[in-house]
Design brief:
Blueprint: H1 3-7, E1 20-24, H2 29-40, E2 44-49, H3 52-62, E3 68-72, H4 78-92, E4 97-100, H5 117-127, H6 129-145, E5 149-154, H7 157-160, H8 168-190, E6 195-201, H9 236-245, H10 255-268, E7 272-274, H11 277-292
Helix pairs in contact: 2-10, 4-6, 5-8
Length: 303
């Protein structure tokens, strides 16, 4: 297979009807939007989350759209993710779509030297190892089945495209997700399989998701030792006001529409699924020029 043909946009799953999908972090926010979109298109969906009440509410709401099941799983626990894969294959006999979407922040912005070891442990346990454990548990089974499938890993432009000075932990975790997914995608193609990988960049406006209050699920043993230094905007509403006060556009993205956009990107066979890629292209060109000149690239700030 030529390099050109291997990297071209082509779909192994142009129709998700009847397919089995697993969505981590699927009970609210972007994940819930993805679940809704999958059910609207006739997929069978396993919603994975760590909050029982939120999961129960999501299953109750979405069950009118199709076949859906909820599973409580801590994606940072590789044994729990293996057990999830066992359950999915024992119950449904397949997994065609794996959305490694669960994610947290480190608890707010701050200077890199103000982050604590537990900030790194918690954020990477979920954002990076959650993606890795999902891939280790499901990809070998997806390959062995011989059926087409897609692994979709949720990254972020904050780190996935460029570092963010005031979100060093979170952005670093998302840079790792993007790097891992590109490696995974290339290896799946080289294997000659009908399984593909894609990276999803939630985008299109401000996102009112559970990331803003992710600390509610932070394990006791991974809490900060010292109080976090004050930050200008630690809630969604604070951040909206912060941007408005700076005279910046405050457009909020509809999460159900974002979920449909993500699933559409999967069925179209895109590796990169994200809005505003022309702006990203220009930024990446500037970064490449700076790196080629051995200069520090311009800072990228959350927006």
């Amino acid at each position: 297979m030529s390099q050109e043909s291997s990297t071209a946009v082509s779909s192994v799953l142009p129709d998700v009807r009847g397919r089995v999908a697993v969505v981590t972090g699927g009970a609210n926010g972007v994940g819930k939007g993805i679940c809704r979109a999958l059910l609207e298109q006739g997929a069978r969906v396993v919603i994975v989350d760590i909050e029982q009440s939120v999961l129960d509410a999501a299953v109750a709401e979405l069950s009118r759209l199709g076949e859906v099941e909820g599973r409580i799983v801590d994606v940072s626990d590789n044994d729990a993710v293996e057990a999830l894969a066992d359950h999915v294959y024992d119950t449904y006999g397949a997994c065609h779509l794996l959305f490694n979407n669960a994610g947290v922040t480190s608890g707010g912005g701050g200077k890199p030297w103000e982050q604590e070891p537990n900030d790194w442990r918690w954020c990477f346990n979920v954002n990076v190892f959650g993606v890795v454990w999902g891939s280790l548990a499901f990809v070998p089974r997806m390959l062995a089945s011989g059926e087409p499938g897609v692994v979709v890993n949720t990254s972020s432009g904050d780190g996935g495209f460029a570092p963010v000075p005031f979100a060093s932990v979170y952005a670093s975790s998302k840079a790792a997700v993007s790097c891992f997914t590109e490696a995974l995608a290339n290896q799946l193609i080289a294997e000659g399989s009908v399984v593909r990988a894609a990276v999803f960049y939630p985008s299109g406006g401000l996102l009112d998701t559970g990331l803003w209050t992710a600390g509610r699920n932070r394990p006791t043993e991974l809490q900060r030792v010292k109080p976090r230094p004050p930050a200008p905007a630690t809630t969604f509403e604070d951040f909206k006001r912060y941007l408005a006060d700076q005279g910046r556009e405050v457009a909020v993205m509809d999460l159900d529409e974002l979920g449909r956009f993500c699933v559409e990107g999967v069925t179209e066979g895109r590796f990169i699924i994200g809005h505003g890629m022309e702006d990203v292209r220009a930024m990446l060109h500037r970064r490449a020029d700076a790196i080629g000149d051995c200069r520090l690239p311009e800072a990228h700030f959350e927006d």
